[in-house]
């Protein structure tokens, strides 16, 4: 008997089972479109179920100019799919997404997923295959839909994120401004706490750079609230600056002023966009440590109906990426590193958490101190930002301002540690200690080691 005859019967039986129309994967949607988004190309695949269990597939390519985008939206409208799925490739997805919204598709019909959730196997990746795989994922419902706010909030996101980047530009340019002054021999940071934002420091430095003949008089007039004396300031700045270097430093100062003006005008645009949501902004400001700027940048990353998208605070913090990670394998708990999430909102939250630690209520400060004792400063700050995210979720979903509360968490933790320390002391082998009248006494020598709070 030949080898092919020996394996022919079981192979045919397996093929017969696979082709059996009773054995099929039930799709969640009868028709779907998968879109592979590129800078200058949209590769689309439309899959739909026809008579019986057969599947019909059609692929189309579109450019990304205005006419092609409109043609793409019209083709999708003509196909009339139950759902459209595309990858969130940077900012490239937004123009086709908005074109589909204009064509009449609702947020329930449009789905956006992270590219890592639909990654192809190595050696099997083409644009057509990517689009087909997205369409198959859409039909079976085997995808995790990303949070996409309405267009008004998407515009707020763009502006708030640009504000964050502009603040970074201001910080970098200010550092270069200070280093350039240091190169000339001047040491302004030894006598000024803020060489960029301080009004007195700015006036004195500009007088120095413009060779004001009455520099010492300018220092006297503007140094009343400075820690350094006028003589110390004059001594720190008494260096010759070459003309070309002086022009370079003045240009850096001008750039800082331009960036700050851009920051002010951009923030005003954000304030205008958020005028309809002023009530929610004021609710966020009730949280101690969150000022108007932080409140507006936090709200720009959210939406008006937060509870509809995130039914629980756990889901909200998971999307944000500020909660402990879940990494268990073979019954062992591995790294609890935070998952990836909204890095822009997470950064703002951590900055606000630092403000709460400095100027927050006593209860919140005690909560941070307890976390710091257990986990260290950096982990405690992330855990505290997680607490702040839950407070924000509660304030916005219940439409009720934050009410400070009293806490004894720090005191209780210290007492618990003291009691445990005494217990460990009494259990030491080879020596015996007793507690008498609140004093720890070594029984062998009678030496008093210290006083404790008697339990």
UniProtKB/TrEMBL annotation:
Residues 33-182 form the Transposase IS110-like N-terminal domain. It holds the Pfam family DEDD_Tnp_IS110. Residues 282-357 form the Transposase IS116/IS110/IS902 C-terminal domain. This is IS110 family transposase. It comes from Sutterella faecalis.
């Amino acid at each position: 008997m030949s080898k092919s005859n020996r394996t022919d019967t079981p192979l045919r039986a397996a093929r017969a089972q696979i082709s059996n129309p009773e054995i099929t994967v039930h799709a969640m949607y009868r028709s779907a479109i998968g879109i592979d988004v590129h800078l200058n190309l949209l590769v689309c695949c439309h899959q739909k179920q026809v008579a019986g269990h057969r599947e019909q597939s059609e692929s189309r390519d579109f450019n990304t100019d205005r006419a092609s985008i409109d043609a793409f939206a019209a083709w999708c409208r003509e196909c009339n799919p139950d759902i459209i799925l595309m990858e969130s490739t940077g900012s490239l997805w937004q123009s086709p997404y908005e074109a589909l919204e204009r064509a009449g598709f609702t947020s329930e019909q449009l789905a956006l997923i992270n590219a890592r959730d639909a990654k192809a196997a190595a050696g099997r990746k083409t644009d057509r295959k990517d689009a087909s795989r997205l369409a198959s994922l859409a039909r079976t419902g085997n995808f995790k839909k990303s949070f996409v706010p309405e267009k008004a909030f998407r515009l707020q996101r763009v502006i708030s994120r640009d504000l964050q980047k502009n603040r970074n530009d201001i910080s970098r340019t200010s550092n270069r401004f200070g280093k350039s002054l240091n190169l000339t021999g001047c040491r302004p940071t030894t006598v000024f706490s803020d060489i960029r934002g301080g009004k007195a420091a700015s006036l004195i430095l500009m007088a120095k750079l413009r060779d004001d003949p009455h520099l010492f008089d300018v220092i006297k007039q503007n140094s009343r609230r400075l820690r350094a004396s006028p003589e110390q300031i004059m001594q720190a700045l008494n260096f010759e600056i070459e003309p070309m270097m002086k022009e370079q430093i003045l240009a850096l100062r001008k750039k800082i002023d331009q960036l700050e003006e851009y920051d002010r005008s951009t923030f005003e645009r954000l304030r205008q966009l958020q005028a309809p949501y002023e009530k929610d902004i004021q609710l966020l400001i009730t949280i101690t440590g969150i000022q108007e700027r932080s409140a507006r940048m936090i709200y720009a990353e959210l939406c008006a109906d937060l509870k509809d998208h995130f039914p629980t605070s756990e889901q909200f913090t998971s999307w944000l990426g500020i909660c402990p990670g879940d990494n268990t394998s073979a019954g062992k708990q591995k790294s609890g590193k935070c998952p990836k999430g909204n890095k822009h909102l997470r950064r703002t939250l951590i900055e606000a958490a630092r403000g709460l630690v400095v100027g927050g209520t006593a209860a919140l400060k005690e909560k941070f101190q307890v976390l710091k004792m257990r986990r260290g400063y950096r982990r405690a700050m992330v855990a505290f930002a997680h607490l702040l995210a839950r407070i924000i979720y509660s304030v916005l979903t219940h439409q009720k301002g934050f009410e400070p509360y009293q806490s004894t968490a720090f005191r209780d933790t210290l007492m618990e540690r003291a009691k445990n320390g005494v217990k460990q002391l009494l259990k030491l082998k080879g020596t015996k200690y007793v507690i008498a009248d609140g004093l720890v006494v070594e029984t062998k020598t009678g030496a008093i080691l210290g006083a404790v709070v008697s339990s």
